[in-house]
Amino acid sequence: MITDFIAEHGYLAVFIGSVLEGETVLVLAGFAAHQNYLSFLPIVVCGLCGGWLGDMFFFLLGRRHGAAILNRHPEWSPRVHKVNDWLVRYQAGVIVGVRFMYGLRVAGPIAIGMSDIPAWRFIMFNLIGSTVWACLFTAAGYLFGHTLEWLFADIKRYEEAALLWILAAAAVLVLFRHIRKRSTRPS
């Protein structure tokens, strides 16, 4: 049922999810790797590629249409200014770390794209950040599975229910973020 779907489409889901959001998808995939439905290294590679490509898209979007995007989304302006302030002092660290900063997953690469940072520099540090990010969140999911197994020695009996609960919790989290984002938009 759901486990067959994960085994068949899991890597594609990790790639697509990493382009769009990523953390929840990677944690779930890491858990699936612990349960032997997916393999750890391909998850990391799919997450790394998806995360890197997503950030490259937003960087290039910021490079080409940054001002128009800010006009369309004025609520991003404080975040963009914050990223620009950080870029002056911590350029490489901001490029690597922006994906770990809540609320800056899209606005961060757009802001960096609007700056005078050369594309080759962003490409290099974004690759480093994507690698660390994919490894870290996949490992967190794997360790979560290991911890559950340790807590519940008979986890195989409950894995379908656990996966459904985790997917439901992820869906509620995504819905909550979407509703929160929509409610903060100016009318």
TrEMBL record:
It comes from the Bacteria. Keywords: Membrane, Transmembrane, Transmembrane helix. The chain crosses the membrane at residues 12-33, 39-62, 122-142, 162-179. This is DedA family protein. It holds the Pfam family VTT_dom. One of its GO terms (cellular component) is plasma membrane. The keyword Transmembrane applies. Residues 22-142 form the VTT domain. The keyword Nucleotide-binding does not apply.
